């Protein structure tokens, strides 16, 4: 059986069949590759540089595929289609030479294009820097809010010392109590935002404790 396979592969008919099969397989691959490239280009055309270069490269691959189709058809028909070979050869030559020249011209620019890895690193650096700026701004805001609450609390204490009216004193006492709770809650939230290991759980616990009515 093995010898018969060897005899067939080395015979004229076997060699012709192998040549036709290989030409058709290569042509199929040449047609599949530009089809995939065309789909990618259609969906990502805004992200792909040099679209004309892609088009030229697709034309070159298709021309190579047609060349193999003509070779296979000539082997099947037993006729050498010289005109078809010349025409497709000229098209392939123009496409291949044009693609090579185009690549030579745009190669310096392609080398200078930022890689996705480099772009990702730059984006991560920008995000880190902006996050640090945001955190610093939030800390400054928290500091100023805390200072304002303390100033308001001090003013309330001064007013309590200046009045003897029981109704006013009661109002100032309630206001002072609310300011103290606000100051404590603000301080605890500031600590949780930057020091707490479990932020969400701590916030929920703090909210529950703050909302509970305190005994007078």
Concise structural overview:
The chain has 216 residues and is mainly α.
Describe this structure in words.
This protein starts with a helix and ends in a 5-residue tail after the last helix. It has helices at residues 2-10, 12-43, 51-77, 82-112, 116-162, 166-195, 199-211. Residues 195-203 and 209-216 have low confidence and may be disordered. It folds into two domains: 2-113, no CATH class; 117-211. With 216 residues, the chain is mainly alpha-helical.
Keywords:
single chain; 216 residues; mainly alpha; 2 domains
Q: Note the main sheet.
A: none
SSE succession: HHHHHHH
C-alpha end-to-end distance: 103 Å
Q: What is the overall number of helices?
A: 7
Overall domain count: 2
Question: Rough shape?
Answer: rod-shaped
pLDDT < 50 stretches: 195-203, 209-216
Oligomeric assembly: single chain
Please bin the fraction of helical residues.
over 70%
Bin the strand percentage.
Answer: under 5%
- Helix/strand-derived class? mainly alpha
- The gyration radius over C-alpha positions equals 40 Å
According to DSSP, the number of beta strands is 0
Please tell me the overall pLDDT: 76
Write the layout of secondary structure elements.
Layout: H1 2-10, H2 12-43, H3 51-77, H4 82-112, H5 116-162, H6 166-195, H7 199-211
Helix pairs in contact: 1-2, 2-3, 3-4, 5-6, 6-7
């Amino acid at each position: 059986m093995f010898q018969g396979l060897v005899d067939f592969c080395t015979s004229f008919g076997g060699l012709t069949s192998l040549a036709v099969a290989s030409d058709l397989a290569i042509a199929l691959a040449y047609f599949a590759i530009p089809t995939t490239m065309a789909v990618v280009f259609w969906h990502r055309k805004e992200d792909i540089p040099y679209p004309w270069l892609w088009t030229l490269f697709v034309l070159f691959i298709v021309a190579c595929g047609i060349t193999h189709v003509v070779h296979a058809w000539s082997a099947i028909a037993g006729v050498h289609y010289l005109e078809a070979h010349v025409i497709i050869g000229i098209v392939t030559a123009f496409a291949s030479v044009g693609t090579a020249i185009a690549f030579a011209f745009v190669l310096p620019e392609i080398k200078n294009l930022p890689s996705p890895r480099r772009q990702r690193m730059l984006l991560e650096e920008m995000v880190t820097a902006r996050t640090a700026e945001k955190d610093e701004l939030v800390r400054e805001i928290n500091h100023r809010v805390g200072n304002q609450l303390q100033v308001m609390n001090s003013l309330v204490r001064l007013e309590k010392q200046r009045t003897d009216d029981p109704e006013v004193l009661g109002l100032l006492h309630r206001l002072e109590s609310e300011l103290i709770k606000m100051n404590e809650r603000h301080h605890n939230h500031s600590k949780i935002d930057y020091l707490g290991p479990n932020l969400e759980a701590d916030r929920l616990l703090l909210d529950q404790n703050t909302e509970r009515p305190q005994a007078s």
